[in-house]
Write a structure and sequence with these properties.
By secondary structure, the protein is an alpha/beta fold. Helices cover 44% and strands 17% of the residues. It contains 15 helices and 14 strands. Strand 7, helix 9 (217-221) and strand 8 (228-233) form a beta-alpha-beta unit. The longest helix is centred in the last third of the chain and has 18 residues, at 368-385. It binds pyridoxal-5'-phosphate (PLP). Residues 105-107, 110, 131, 133, 173, 177, 202, 204-205, 233, 235, 243 line the site of pyridoxal-5'-phosphate.
Length: 387
């Protein structure tokens, strides 16, 4: 096996697909230290700049003094701390759904929910650009997986109409993680009602960004339905870790009884849950932070003017520029890095072949001057690299 792995690794290197981990030596911030160098970073999902917020840090420290460090047991044994409970209620009420359940990671939440609710006689309908965790969830559930072309609702409708499955679940990224575009939730809901399907929304990149006070995709569209199962990760805009699932009380109760990635794992440290409550409080009280992010997104879109590379149409904090080949995107990423700016080059298999891209993520932690500098370097890079 090791020889085979060596050969595969060499092939990947040959194709420009080797990934390297940068060594972070500071908190997440607009300016961070990576590999011993100070960089201006557009490379995190810390959209609200909460990952290093003093309120979250002190909430975590105080909670650790009170509750200790480790969760110690699974939620159904003795791991379910008051802090977890408080965070579930704060999160569910923030997005306006009756009940919520904390998971240790978003990956586990997606696997747990889908495998608990669906089985062999059921079917999943999934956008082709969904996050990897949702595809793995389908495999784990052993349900039939129907993947439709990105945002192609007429193809989705044909699949739903043709399905004879017992339970049907439409699954989408509410905000697509490598494109930044938004799923048309009201239209999806109409289809779900017409074909008696449920809708799992993965709001990893919408929570904290979209809607009033960053309440996410449901607030953005002002929709509500017992058919919606809502999932958001808490290591992105919320600045902490984990994920929560919210929706109808029966669904949440069923998940407590049967979601394996909830039941058969140790509860996350209670102090993280206390930090999450602090994060929700910041989101509710510091509207200026959310507004600043929205202003930066609008400024970036208005002032970037590229001739050949293509800024994707996105109103979210994810602003990708499609460059094409792996070499070209690495060249661009290196050009920016040489000027102290860190923006990741995203290559296949994370994105489809020949659509390698620069994934710029904006954050409330950035100053307007940071975004101006990025725009200037992008303009210069296009001139220099495409000359
Ligand atoms: C990041 C992400 C996840 C996984 O969440 P983690 O908490 O990081 O495991 C799931 N879905 C989407 C769309 C994501 O972007």
């Amino acid at each position: 096996m090791i020889d085979q792995l060596k050969a595969e690794l060499a092939e990947r290197a040959q194709a420009g697909l080797t990934r390297k981990r940068r060594l972070l030596q500071s908190p997440q911030a607009a300016y961070l230290i990576a590999d011993d160098q100070r960089r201006l970073s557009f490379a995190s999902n810390d959209y609200l700049g909460l990952a290093n917020h003093p309120n979250l840090i002190s909430a975590l420290q105080n909670a650790a003094k009170e509750a200790g460090v480790g969760g110690g047991a699974s939620h159904l044994i003795t791991g379910h701390h008051q802090f977890h409970h408080d965070a579930e209620q704060a999160l569910a009420s923030f997005i306006g759904l009756p009940a919520g359940l904390l998971f240790s990671t978003g990956y586990m939440a997606n696997m747990g929910v889908v495998a608990a609710l669906l089985g062999r006689n059921d079917a999943i309908f999934a956008d082709k650009l969904n996050h990897a965790s949702l595809n793995d969830a389908a495999v784990l559930a052993r349900a039939e997986l129907n993947r439709y072309a990105h945002q192609d609702l007429s193809q989705l409708e044909k699949m739903l109409a043709a399905s004879t499955a017992q339970r049907k679940l439409v699954i989408v990224d509410a905000v697509f993680s490598m494109d930044g575009d938004i799923a048309p939730v009201p239209k999806l809901l109409v289809l779900c009602e017409k074909y008696d399907a449920y809708l799992l929304l993965d709001d990893a990149h919408g929570f904290g960004v979209l809607g009033e006070q960053g309440r996410g995709i449901l607030s953005h569209f002002d929709v509500a339905s017992p058919r919606i199962i809502y999932m958001a990760t808490l290591g992105k805009a919320a600045g902490v870790a984990g994920a929560f699932v919210a929706g109808d009380e029966t669904i949440i109760e069923y998940l407590i009884q049967s979601a394996k990635t909830y039941i058969y794992t140790t509860a996350s440290p209670p102090s993280l849950a206390a930090a999450l409550v602090a994060a929700v409080n910041v989101m509710k009280s510091d509207e200026a932070r959310h507004q600043h992010l929205k202003d930066l997104i609008a400024y970036f879109k208005e002032n970037l003017s590229l001739k050949k590379w293509q800024l994707m149409p996105s109103d979210t904090a994810i602003q990708p520029i499609v460059v094409g080949s792996n070499e070209a995107v690495l060249g661009l990423s290196d050009y920016l890095l040489a000027r102290g700016v860190l923006v990741p080059a995203i290559r296949p298999p994370t994105v489809p072949k020949n659509t390698a891209r620069l994934r710029i993520s904006l954050s409330a932690a950035h100053a307007l001057d940071d975004v101006k500098l990025l725009i200037q370097y992008l303009h210069e890079a296009e001139q220099a690299l495409l000359a």
